[in-house]
Specification:
The protein is built from seven helices and 22 strands. Helix 3 crosses helix 4. The protein starts with 35 loop residues before the first strand and ends with a helix. Keywords: Coiled coil.
Length: 578
């Protein structure tokens, strides 16, 4: 329906040609508050324009939708009690927050208060039900409608109207097909059979005399006693409902407030708690039994360890006494071992001198950088293929060098990285990790072979000589000088150089027994005492003190006596002598 038009008016609605398509199912005198289910408002304004007349209903349309020819006088329609007028210019098209309330003369409180519809000129409210007020209210046919509007000053009563449901005008069973404008501040009532409205400022003229109606035969529908019993029955049903509601409320209050009523639930709760406590107690008892078994196991293990410690202490005491008694023997064995090592070193030096006497290396007079071995010159460096005439002498010289290097590796106790096999002029050298394709054996002869393999073999031989020089503590200036480096090695060893390289090295130390006595440490006759504290760690060695600073840590003094067993040292010395 066009609820929001520029000039709302009822002129077209009052046209004499208008006929509603639907008819109401309720007679005017049968309309009661129990039939009222909804209310909506249309064309809300705070003040109607002065030039617009108040619409009036059509003269030939009755309340029930028929032509206005029903007999009998009609009561005048109840007027609107008051419509609030607001100072200032009228506000015609502003949207407001609106709600309404329904009242009755015999009831102090409002029968119903609707929800607030925000910012609307044509508000539609939710449906409601007044049956909860009982027959005393739902059988009424009069009510008061108050419409409240939220203006700038607050909530204000916009409309108050006393309505008789029997005087309403029927609009139709639905408002979808209604195409006529309504008056300003029009109130539309939704009853069980359709929609109605009221024309506040219109007094219905007396209807014309009805035409003569053919008298119909009288039929008996219900007697007065039947209607009276029906009314009493309705009242009794309402009283029974009220009594049932009050009893239900009283029973609920009693069940909630009386402690004895909740005793079964309390008993069940306590039983559940008891079962929980019993299960917890059982679990704790099992855990306690497990801990007892573990305690017994630990006690047994502790006793076993204590017995083992006592046995170890006795063994340590016995061993300590043996060590103290074996100290003189250790001194004698140490002196004998030193003498034996000196003799071995002197014998090594003599053997190396004799070896260089057997294979003498001399420099050529015409070329001081070229040397010969056993009067066979060896070109240095050997980087180019030699002629056929000198190939035999060069191969023999390389064979002598291979023999000399092979013997020196034994006398100096140096395992060569590249093993040499001396076979005279057909000697060869082995490289197990070479990346060169072919066999891992490289020839040290110059005839009937590939030259790059000979050159690589000479390079490997020079690396072995470099290893021997490093053993006696001599640096190698040029690894390509084969005979020159060997001559340097012989000169150093013959003059007694090389430091203590030719001396026999002692065997690796055996693990020494550790004796714990009063948190002190003694290693090979040296007393060490470690004191951990905030200032650091101190170590005392027979009059010497060394302090290692530490940022953190605290501890107690601990000394460990470590002494060498003479019987073990004597056995090692005998094995070396053999």
């Amino acid at each position: 329906m066009p609820a929001d038009s520029d000039n709302p008016s009822c002129s077209s609605f009052l046209d004499t040609n208008f006929r509603p398509r639907d008819r109401p199912s309720l007679l005017p005198y049968n309309r009661r508050l129990r039939h009222l289910s909804s209310i909506c408002l249309r064309n809300l304004t705070t003040s109607p324009p002065a030039s617009e007349p108040t619409p009036t209903p059509p003269a030939n349309v009755s309340d029930n939708g028929d032509a206005a020819n029903d007999p009998g006088p009609r009561r005048p329609t109840r007027r609107r009690r008051s419509t609030k007028s607001f100072p200032g210019p009228p506000v015609m098209r502003k949207r407001w927050d609106v709600f309404f309330s329904l009242h009755s003369d015999g009831v102090k409180e409002p029968l119903y208060i609707s929800e607030v519809v925000e910012k609307s000129m044509n508000p539609d409210f939710q449906a409601f039900d007044l049956s909860e007020w009982g027959p005393a209210v739902t059988r009424l046919e009069k009510l008061t409608v108050k419409v409240w509007c939220h203006l700038e000053s607050g909530w204000t009563l916009l409309l108050e109207a006393e309505v008789e449901l029997s005087e309403l005008t029927f609009l139709g069973r639905n408002m979808e097909n209604f195409r006529y404008p309504l008056a300003q501040n029009a109130v539309i009532f939704g009853l069980s059979d359709g929609f109605y409205t009221a024309f506040w400022d219109y007094t219905r003229p007396p209807p014309p005399l009805p035409p003569r109606i053919k008298k119909l035969p009288t039929t008996i529908t219900a007697s007065y006693d039947t209607l009276h019993r029906l009314t009493n029955l309705t009242t009794c049903l309402y009283d029974a409902q009220t009594t049932t509601h009050s009893l239900t409320t009283q029973i609920s209050t009693t069940l909630t407030s009386t402690p004895t009523v909740s005793l079964p639930s309390l008993v069940s709760t306590q039983r559940a708690k008891l079962e929980t406590l019993r299960s917890t107690l059982t679990a704790e008892q099992k855990r306690l039994a497990t801990l007892h078994r573990r305690l017994k196991t630990l006690q047994t293990s502790l006793l076993t360890r204590r017995a083992a410690l006592e046995t170890s202490r006795l063994t340590i005491s016995t061993t300590t006494s043996h060590l103290h008694s074996a100290l003189p023997s250790l001194t004698r064995c140490t002196t004998a071992l030193s003498s034996t090592r000196e003799a071995i070193s002197s014998q090594r030096r003599t053997l190396i001198k004799q070896l260089f006497t057997i294979f003498p290396i001399r420099g050529l007079p015409d070329d001081p950088l070229t040397y010969s071995i056993l009067s066979l010159p060896l070109p240095t460096p050997l980087t180019e293929p030699v002629s056929s005439a000198s190939a035999i002498s060069t191969s023999a010289a390389l064979g002598y060098v291979a023999q000399l290097v092979y013997m020196l590796s034994f006398y100096l106790s140096v395992p060569l990285r590249y093993p040499v096999q001396p076979l005279g002029s057909t000697s060869y050298i082995t490289d197990s990790v070479s990346v060169i394709q072919g066999p891992r054996v490289f020839p040290l002869w110059c005839r009937n072979t590939v030259w790059y393999r000979v050159e690589y073999a000479v390079f490997l031989l020079n690396k072995d000589i470099e290893q021997l020089l490093a053993r006696v503590g001599i640096g190698c200036a040029d690894v390509r000088m084969t005979l020159g480096n060997l001559l340097l090695l012989g000169a150093v060893v013959g003059e007694g150089g090389g430091g203590g390289v030719l001396k026999v090295e002692p065997p690796p130390p055996q693990p020494q027994p550790v004796i714990v006595e009063d948190d002190s440490v003694r290693v090979n006759g040296i007393h060490e005492e470690r004191v951990n504290g905030a200032n650091g760690m101190k170590m005392k060695r027979e009059g010497e003190e060394m302090t290692n600073s530490k940022a953190k840590g605290k501890g107690k003094a601990r000394e460990v006596h470590v002494e060498v067993r003479p019987d073990l040292v004597i056995a090692e010395t005998a094995a070396v002598a053999r």
